[in-house]
């Protein structure tokens, strides 16, 4: 799945398949300006910053069990969001510090370090990547991903795929080749 925020005409948090199909709103009320998003892949939670409402909130992948983690003026200066173990990590753009927020007790916030110029944060850890033995976009015997001549996108599961073409090309009737 692909998760993303939008604060155009109607602010929301959404999810869709990697090929853009099955687009679903998972948060569309009491939300104004969601600017950063992080996923807890193990427990299937979506966290986001809303800098207008000055809050950090969470829902499950279906948009249920919504909770506010922390709220207050300091949120309007946050950018980027990452989750690892019991903590959320973000950047305070006002003083360029990395903040650690206890995701179960939002009042426990600690500044960890200062950076010169940061707008995003990521945590890289082996446990955050799900192991998949095989998937629909693996290269075929001719080296084409998922048998697609240009782009292979995973669909509703790791066993399904959709072929797409680069700009200027049209997908052929076989659903795999681009012309």
UniProtKB/TrEMBL annotation:
The cross-references to InterPro entries, in alphabetical order and at most eight, read: 6-blade_b-propeller_TolB-like (IPR011042), Cueball_EGF_LRP_Nidogen (IPR050778), LDLR_classB_rpt (IPR000033)
State the PROSITE patterns in the record.
LDLRB
The UniProt entry annotates LDL-receptor class B repeats at 1-43
One GO CC annotation: plasma membrane
Give the superkingdom in one word.
Answer: Eukaryota
List, alphabetically, the Pfam families matched.
FXa_inhibition, Ldl_recept_b
Q: Name one GO molecular function term.
A: Wnt-protein binding
What biological-process GO terms show up in the record? canonical Wnt signaling pathway
> What protein is this chain from?
LRP1B protein
Q: Which organism is it from?
A: Eulacestoma nigropectus (wattled ploughbill)
The taxonomic lineage of its organism, from the top, reads: Eukaryota, Metazoa, Chordata, Craniata, Vertebrata
Gene behind the chain: Lrp1b_1
